[in-house]
Every structure is written in C-alpha cells, then in structure tokens.
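pasting for ref. prot 1 ->
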Amino acid sequence: MSIDPERRRFLGVLAVTTAAAVSLPFVLRGPRPVVAADAPRPQGGNVTIDEFSPDKKPLGPRTEARVVMTDEQWRAKLDGRSYYVMRHEGTEPPYTGPGWDRHENGIYRCLGCDTALYDSATKFDSGTGWPSFWQPISKRNIVQTDDRSLAVEDRTAVSCARCGSHLGHVFDDGPDPTGLRYCMNAVAMKFVPVPGVHITLS
C-alpha cells in the first residue's frame, strides 16, 4: 500500500502546525492540568504483557503489576520533554526526538516502565519526522483509545499498557502489510539494541 505524497505532505504540515500549537503553551506555561475529560490512568492491579529477550526472542505473556506513580514521582523520573509527552499527552516537534531516524536492529521500549513496544524490523520512513512503525511488537503491550482533543479529526491515541504513558497516535495511511502508521514520540521510548550491534548516534 503506497502513501499518497500529497496526503503525506498535508499531514506533515498539519502535524508541524499542531506540534507548534501544542508545544508553545508548554514552553510558556508548563503542561496543561489534568481534567476530568482526560483518559483514565491505570489504578493499580496487574496487567498481562508479552515479554521479549534482548535479542527479540518472544518469551510469552507475563503478568506484571501496573506501574503507578504520583505526579511528583513521574516528574523526578522523566525529563521535561518526556514528562510533557508521556504524562500530559503532548507531542514533540517533528525531526527533534532522539534517534527519530535510527535504523539499527533492536527493540523500542517504554521509557516509563521498560515494556517492549516496537521491533525495529517494523520501522519505516514515514516522512513525518516521528518514529513510525507498521505494527506494535505485541498488541498486549499497548492500549488504543479515541482521541478527540483536536477539532480537525478524530484520532486514535496509543499508550503503554503497563504504565499508561502516552506514546503517540496510529493512522491508517501506513505501508503493507498492515496499512497502519504507528506515529510515536521518540522521547517516550528508549532504544535497546540487539546485543553486539554497534549504535550510531544521530
């Protein structure tokens, strides 16, 4: 499935405009307060996720305690950009996230709880300036919810199944075999290379 260049260009302009509009208030005033309309956060209990070894071998499902921390604890754990994106549904400006165009072999894991999110084998260049994948490493490990925070379109938000941190959004303009584009924020993930792989910093 090919992506229409004109549509991609339009989406890129829209994304840059949206990111600027969302990021500027954060720079000036800090992250927006949590309101009742926000998606609920995990409130304890357990969650079943799929585990993967450092060399990407599937280890099967495992039940883990949800990661629940106070706002102060999240602020202490994450830097300003990651906190804004992951805990306040922000968006990093395109082409700015660490390793957004990385192509080494490895696993992208949640910066908040280390849950495996994406296999580098499913990463592709979407032309948007954000890390993009055509599928998650496991559907168990992410949660998708409706996001109507923007008036221009309904979107599907993607968050970590274990800690509830916002990761990005999924769109239906991706390549084969799924036709999906999981457009993620680089500051919400950490890249863990397959052992023995040399990393080139971008």
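and prot 2 ->
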Amino acid sequence: MEQNDLTVRPIDGRGELDLFRRLPYVLDGELADDLAAGRRRPEWMWVALRGDRLAARAAWWSRPGGDTPLVLDVLDIDDDAPRPDRVDDGVRLLRTATAATVPDGSRPPEYSRLVPPDWREDTPSGRAVEDRMTLLERTGARLFVERLRLERRPGSPIPRPGERLAFRPPGDPGELVALMALALGGTLDAHGRDDLTRMSAREAASRHYEGELARYTSPRDWWRIATLPRGEPVGFVLPAHNGYHAIIAYLAVLPAHRGNGYVDDLLAEGTRVLAERNVPRIRASTDLGNVPMANAFRRAGYVGIGREINMTWS
C-alpha cells in the first residue's frame, strides 16, 4: 500500500527480519523465537518504507498458536527523521496495519511499551516515548496505566519461611478463581478495576484465569494459597514462567486480611519457590499507583528495571 512515497506492508516472512529490526527495540532479540513458536506471524509485522529506508514498523503478539493478536508491543518510528514527519509516518503505518490485522468491529489490542524509568524527563529516550504516544493518540488511543517493572537478581538472599502463615497449592481451579474474585474487592490494579466496570468479579477472575494463568506451562504446584493456622485463606501467590522469564504472575491479599503485612509473607513464599529452582532472575510488575505492592517488592530485594506504558482504544 503506497501513500505518497511511503510504502506500508507486512513483512515477507522470516527473511525480512533484518529489515524489520533496523529500528532497534529491546524486544528485537525475541522476534525470531516468537515467530518460530507461533507467538507472532509475518502478517502481524508491518513496515513503512521510503525506498530502502525503514520509516516505521509495528508488530502484534499473541500466545502460541493464537488466531488473533492480543497486544501491540512493537511500534517504532525513525527518530532521526524530522518531526512531525516521523510521527505522520507512524500514524499512516498504524492505521493501515490495524485495519488489516484487527478483525472488523473489534477494539484494537492494548499497546504496551517498555520504557526507561526517567522517560518523563527531557532526554532523547523520553522524547522518543512521547513521539510514539503522540502518534497513538492521533489514532484514538489514550494512556491507560503506567507500570513498574522489577527484578530479583541472582545472588540475592532467599527469604526464610515465616511462622504466621501456612502455604499449600490450590485444591482445584475453582478454589483459586473464587479467591481471585474476592481479591478484586478494593483492588488497586487498573486492569482489575476496569474489568469490574464491565463484568462481575467472578467473571473477571474466570477470564483472567482461563485467558492467562491456565496457559502457563510451568507447574501448577508452584502456586501457593496462604492460610491462617486454622485453615482460613489469607491470600495467594502464583509463581510461574511465562516462556521468557520466571515471574510473580499474581499476588493478592484478601480484603478481610489487608493491613497486617501478609503481602511480605506471600511475596517471600513466591520468591522462595522460584529461587530454589535456580532461575537466573525473577521478574515482576505492578501499577505505578499500587504503592503498597511496589514497596513490598522493594522490601523483598526486587530492584526497578524500568516502566511499562499501556495505552488503550475506546
């Protein structure tokens, strides 16, 4: 598709990966494996070309074998090109690629961008993030949430078990989904709060479980429900591997037990489960506005490695 002198098209298979990677981004090293695993498709990876120069690119991601893309996680423009030309090129690319990639009538998948912690400052990297957000806004997107990205690094002390709580794997998916629904009460998580504007807590929990947690290939016996000595559930923590990294996939304290510091016990248990399996690092994330959770990660020895920007379309 040519617009003036800009050619917008999907890549022609794995042979054009080098072309696609001419604009650098931290996820570039994963693209080949993602294509091989079915997490990406060439028809979901678009480029905008002026002659031989790559002016912009976009790519969507899905779970292995997924029929539709779940997230737009690569969107780049040539930061050396004049502004506003580079933003215009990105808008043209995104509009054309979205129309061809997203099913008719569907809301476009959420946009995710990994950014440095100081991106709001007047730096080249900050201006690059702002340019991408500007072009997204011109297509109707808005900022949904900013998230902290954290990591526990090799050599950090393994937390010792506490004595206040007992831990066990979930009895069955129904038990965990019920606890997840309870945990949505008063949640500070932006995605959880947004779900509750459109569906019941039980529906939101089931959707999250079936759509994400149940798809992890790491063992379910890593998961832990925390209970008081008499067996009353206090919360849960779900250590997992997402195909890229060991992660704390989900952690929650039930509303009736918040304010007692149990978040530290839960995080210590989840961290210990993964650390004892000698994973090279443990990744985690939480909303910038979820200050209690962010502080718990820091107390547990997790360090910030950046931010994530999520934008959505109405």
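The chain has a mean pLDDT of 95.
DSSP finds nine helices and 13 strands in the chain.
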